[in-house]
């Protein structure tokens, strides 16, 4: 898709682009926020057992664990 410099467009060209975008957006299916939130919550809860952000990484599989401690003499 070519890059369009908006400063070089006429007001008519900008209006045509905006109308085209609105035609695309009006065709999108809209959902209630409450329904979306419930579905997202259910999806997250289904995968909570495998989610490392929730349960953490085991010490054996953690590639970033410290190899040794810091000793100050």
UniProtKB/TrEMBL annotation:
<dbReference type="InterPro" id="IPR001770">
    <property type="entry name" value="G-protein_gamma"/>
</dbReference>
<feature type="domain" description="G protein gamma">
    <location>
        <begin position="5"/>
        <end position="73"/>
    </location>
</feature>
<comment type="similarity">
    <text>Belongs to the G protein gamma family.</text>
</comment>
<keyword id="KW-0488">Methylation</keyword>
<keyword id="KW-0636">Prenylation</keyword>
<keyword id="KW-0449">Lipoprotein</keyword>
<dbReference type="InterPro" id="IPR015898">
    <property type="entry name" value="G-protein_gamma-like_dom"/>
</dbReference>
<dbReference type="GO" id="GO:0007186">
    <property type="term" value="P:G protein-coupled receptor signaling pathway"/>
</dbReference>
<dbReference type="GO" id="GO:0031681">
    <property type="term" value="F:G-protein beta-subunit binding"/>
</dbReference>
<comment type="function">
    <text>Guanine nucleotide-binding proteins (G proteins) are involved as a modulator or transducer in various transmembrane signaling systems. The beta and gamma chains are required for the GTPase activity, for replacement of GDP by GTP, and for G protein-effector interaction.</text>
</comment>
<keyword id="KW-0807">Transducer</keyword>
<keyword id="KW-1003">Cell membrane</keyword>
<comment type="subunit">
    <text>G proteins are composed of 3 units; alpha, beta and gamma.</text>
</comment>
<dbReference type="GO" id="GO:0005834">
    <property type="term" value="C:heterotrimeric G-protein complex"/>
</dbReference>
<dbReference type="InterPro" id="IPR036284">
    <property type="entry name" value="GGL_sf"/>
</dbReference>
<dbReference type="Pfam" id="PF00631">
    <property type="entry name" value="G-gamma"/>
</dbReference>
<keyword id="KW-0472">Membrane</keyword>
<protein>
    <recommendedName>
        <fullName>Guanine nucleotide-binding protein subunit gamma</fullName>
    </recommendedName>
</protein>
């Amino acid at each position: 898709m070519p890059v369009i410099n908006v400063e070089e467009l006429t007001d008519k060209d900008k209006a045509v682009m905006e109308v085209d975008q609105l035609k695309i957006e009006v065709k999108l299916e809209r959902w209630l926020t409450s329904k979306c939130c419930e579905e997202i919550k259910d999806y997250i809860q289904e995968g909570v057992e495998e989610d490392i952000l929730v349960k953490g990484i085991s010490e054996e599989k953690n590639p970033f664990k410290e190899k040794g401690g810091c000793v100050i003499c």
